[in-house]
Amino acid sequence: MEKRNSKAFSKEEYELWVETRKQKNKDFLPTYEAVQTLIQEESTTIDNFKQILDEVERLHELAATATEQVLDAKALSDFVNKLLVSIKSSGNKEISPASFITGLLTKYGDKNGSKPFNWSALGENVVGICNNVSRSCCTMVGPMDVEMKTKKVVSAKRKRSAADVEHPEELKNAATEEDSATDKNVATMFNIMKSRKKPEKVENLIMNKDSYAQTGENLFALFISGERWESGSEI
To answer: What ranges does the record give for the region Disordered, renumbered to this chain (predicted)?
Structure first.
């Protein structure tokens, strides 16, 4: 095996290959740690993913031994998982507070704090959004009239109490007229009965073959007359 290597490579080429291999082994672990640090960051911007992808490709070129290849595969798997989580959150249109603040710092400030946050630019953009919203209020129904309107004078109507609405005289007169008509009819009936020699039967006075209601009313009146006669009142 050594003879084959000696025939394939010259001494200078072999020494250069060994030196390159040592340099790659020396650079692999720092590159792997840098990739893991970038993956664990909460930033999900395109620049962040591009930087991680470049470091993963560089790590793949540096991997030579089996252990280094396993670590390279693990870094690639972690990068893919972070990319999938970012795609799912973007599909649900969910914006985390951390990503919102990061976006503000990227747009109007500096993460490192080298320059102050540009509140004026942020205010100008917010005012522009508010102005667009306020202009949509021009579609109100009806005219915007600012003229003074005369106040209508409402006259309060006097409420009548229950004591005011009384007509005792009319009710009394109506009852008197009804009583006088009833008394006349009863007096006429008794005069007819007295003028006849043969007494009338009670059923002839009460019963009405054409009206059952009239018969019941006559019977009820007879009971009332009997009670008034027993109490000594005039019939």
So the answer is: 157-180
Amino acid letter at 230?
A: E
- What is the DSSP secondary structure assignment for residue 46, as one 8-state letter? H
The pLDDT tens digits for 172-192 are 555 555 567 767 877 787 787
Delimit the domains of the chain by residue range.
11-90, 97-132, 182-230
What is the pTM (predicted TM-score) of this model?
A: 0.30
Q: Give the tokens for residue 93.
A: 């249109």
Q: How confident is the model at residue 128 (pLDDT cuts 50, 70, 90)?
A: low
Angle CA 230–177–203, to nearest 5? 45
Conformational region of residue 232, where left means phi above 0, alpha means psi within -120 to 50, and beta covers everything else = left
Element (H, E) at 214: helix 212-230
The per-residue pLDDT for 24 is 60
Give the chain's mean pLDDT: 71
- 8-state DSSP, 63: -
CB 182, CB 190: distance < 8 Å: no
Distance CA 181, CA 95 (A): 97
| Residue 100 contacts residue 74 (beta carbons within 8 Å) | no
* CB contact burial 142-174 (16+ within 10 A = b; e otherwise): eeeeeeeeeeeeeeeeeeeeeeeeeeeeeeeee
